[in-house]
Write a structure and sequence with these properties.
The complex is a heterodimer.
Chain A lengths: L1 E12 L2 E13 L4 E6 L5 H8 L7 E6 L2 E2 H5 L7 H7 L2 E4 L11 H11 L4 H14 L15 H13 L5 E5 L7 H18 L2 E6 L2 H7 L2 E6 L2 E7 H6 L4 H6 L12 E7 L8 H9 L4 E10 L2 E10 L7 H9 L3 E4 L23
Helix pairs in contact in A: 4-5, 4-6, 5-6, 6-7
Chain B lengths: L1 H35 L9 H16 L2 H7 L1 H8 L5 H25 L3 H9 L4 H37 L5 H10 L4 H31 L7 H24 L1
Helix pairs in contact in B: 1-2, 1-5, 1-7, 1-8, 2-5, 4-5, 5-7, 6-7, 7-8, 7-9, 7-10, 8-9, 9-10
Classes of the chains: A alpha/beta, B mainly alpha.
Chain lengths: ~350, ~240
């Protein structure tokens, strides 16, 4: 649905050059929720602005719904009619909502339709329908100043949907909201994704957002995409930083001379009680030091850190059993690895991206 | 005395009205262009921006009396004479256009860049951004700027009176000062104070009505704003009194 190849953005100020994007190849499938996560300054904001060419990339191409936007834009400095038409079918929601305070909620939602030159009757009908969809039908005549943050973002979403977009870009849409409102907005995005088959690209610095609704994710650092893939793919990637952040496990061994093993669950094995099978078959005592499990798309995925008695040499067979079950097993070098989250039961812990 | 003052008032209104109309016609586009052509603006264009900026600055820095005298040949060319209210509209308008243009520039620049970005993301072009975002969003501030412009034009028009434009300023000088008739002086000053205050009140009211919706109704901030602006109008009235 969205493909970027070699996307590069260099800002020049005087003789200084800042590379915001450094050869980003992004691939977003149709109908998925795709999260781009990274610290501030990692280039994710620039990236999402390049997807509808609000920022003109220095080089590279952006293709959205089969349309090469970079070719549409050509070398013109201003956005030509073709690019503007393409933009009107890419919805965008913003961290600070960006609603016009001088217009009512309904008129805000009508703005994109005015740009599309839809007639007045149809505009009103469509706007009210969209407001109903986001659960704000009763606020049509209110002004943005009279709404709460979550309601404003719902208006922002309704407005972004006015052009019947196939793609919705979300620029930190929940970062200005409290946790509960964040959940309800994410739920709304999820519902829209499923009801309308909307492809959603969202950028965020909160790992929780990715965890809650994303099918796929990319991690950005210094203008580069360091990792990307579906959540299951990321988990299956040994040493994946995103997987570790999404499913942080920690916990120190309870005593010297024990084997600490990180087990990653992805796919079918996760539905079977592997740990208790292991315990019964080999008659070993297993302690769970930490675990982060989630159910995504009906499948349990996540990671667990377990402790087996005795040094590694004594545990080769049980570890082999786990590998046979189709699990990914890494023997944790506890001494070297900084503990991600000291408390066990990390699944309930809210951790931002580090 | 009465018909004289009545006619002087009409002349003042005439000059102020037309100078204001021209200030809006000329100043609004110039102010918007100043914002659009600046670096990072919609129509980024360093040359146009610099030219407009220099012209506006020259217009702003000339004292009005000097501007009016310097413009006499131009006024003669346009109107056919340099005396009378019609002729005074020319220098008044030329003085007011850059004044209003700067106020427009400031108001429009205050509009949150995120709103422009949002309009762009919907596929809006420059036209949409100016007429659906920048101007409506800065409307209360533009009206406040217009109020200030009108009051400045009133004060300019009194100065113009000294140079043969007619109106209340000219009455105050010819009758009040030169004929030592204090009554004229007092009455014209009172009339000008009344006019300026009325303009300010109407302007404030318009601003309040326009901005009521963009902030929560009856917030305390809004009630506090009125006295501060009125003080400003008193300041201008004092300036006027000095001039006369």
């Amino acid at each position: 649905m969205i493909t970027t190849t070699g996307l590069t953005k260099v800002y020049r100020s005087g003789d200084r050059e800042v590379t915001a994007l450094d050869g980003v190849d992004l691939h977003v499938r149709e109908g998925e929720v795709y999260g781009v996560i990274g610290q501030s300054g990692a280039g994710k904001s620039t990236l999402i602005r390049c997807l509808n060419l609000l920022e003109r990339p220095s080089s590279g191409t952006v293709t959205v719904a089969g349309q090469d936007l970079t070719a549409l834009a050509g070398n013109q400095k201003r956005a030509g009619a073709a690019l503007r038409a393409a933009r009107s079918h890419i919805g965008m929601v913003f961290q600070h909502f960006n609603l016009l305070s001088s217009r009512t909620v309904q008129d805000n939602v009508e703005l994109p339709l005015e740009i599309l030159k839809v007639d007045r009757r149809e505009r009103a009908r469509k706007a009210l329908e969209l407001l109903d969809l986001v659960g704000l039908a009763d606020k049509a005549k209110a002004y943005p100043a009279q709404l709460s943050g979550g309601q404003k973002q719902r208006v922002g979403i309704a407005r972004a949907l006015a052009g019947d977009p196939k793609v919705l870009l979300s620029d930190e849409a929940t970062s200005a909201l409290d946790p509960e409102t964040t959940r309800s907005i994410l739920q709304l995005l999820r519902d829209l994704n499923q009801q309308l088959g909307l492809t959603v690209v969202l950028i965020t610095h909160e790992m929780d957002v990715v965890k809650t609704i994303c099918d796929s994710a990319a991690l950005m650092k210094n203008g580069r995409v360091v990792e990307q893939g579906t959540v299951a793919e990321l988990l299956a990637t040994p040493g994946s930083e995103l997987a570790r952040e999404l499913f942080p496990v920690g916990g120190e061994p309870s005593a010297e001379g024990r084997t600490v093993v990180d087990v990653t669950f992805h796919g079918d094995a996760a539905t079977r009680p592997v740990i208790s099978e292991l315990s019964r078959t080999y008659n070993v005592d297993i302690s769970i030091l930490g675990a982060a499990m989630d159910t995504i798309g009906g499948k349990q995925i996540g990671r667990m850190r377990i402790e087996l008695p005795g040094p590694f040499e004594e545990n080769v067979v049980p570890i082999g059993f786990l590998r046979e079950q189709g699990l990914q097993v890494d023997v944790a070098d506890v001494a070297d690895e900084p503990s991600q989250s000291p408390a066990p039961g990390a699944s309930s812990q809210k951790e931002g991206a580090k | 005395m009465q018909p004289l003052l009545y006619n002087a008032c009409l002349d003042t209104f005439f000059m102020v009205w037309w100078a204001t109309v021209w200030a809006v016609i000329g100043g609004l586009p110039l102010g918007v262009l100043l914002v659009l052509t600046e670096r990072g603006g919609q129509l980024q264009n360093a040359v146009v921006n610099k030219v407009i900026s220099v012209v506006v600055n020259i217009g702003r820095s000339l004292p009005f009396v000097i501007l009016m005298i310097a413009l006499i040949p131009f006024t003669r060319f346009v109107i056919g004479t340099s005396i009378g209210p019609s002729a005074a509209v020319v220098p008044l308008a030329i003085g007011a256009i850059p004044f209003f243009a700067r106020l427009v520039e400031t108001s429009v620049r205050e509009v949150d860049g995120g709103l422009v970005e949002a309009a762009q993301s919907m596929g809006g072009g420059t036209w949409t951004i100016v007429f659906k975002v920048l101007l409506p969003q800065s409307m209360p501030s533009l009206v406040a700027g217009l109020t200030n412009t009108v009051i400045t034009v009133i004060s300019y028009s009194a100065m113009a009176g000294a140079l043969g434009a007619g109106g209340l300023g000219s009455v105050a000088i010819t009758y009040g000062q030169q004929r030592f008739d204090t009554r004229f002086m007092v009455v014209t000053v009172i009339l000008i104070i009344v006019i300026v205050t009325a303009v300010q009140l109407i302007g404030d009211l318009a601003v309040r009505i326009l901005s009521r919706r963009s902030s929560r109704a009856d917030s305390p901030v809004r009630l506090l704003r009125l006295p501060r602006q009125r003080k400003q109008s008193e300041q201008i009235t004092r300036d006027l009194t000095h001039l006369l």
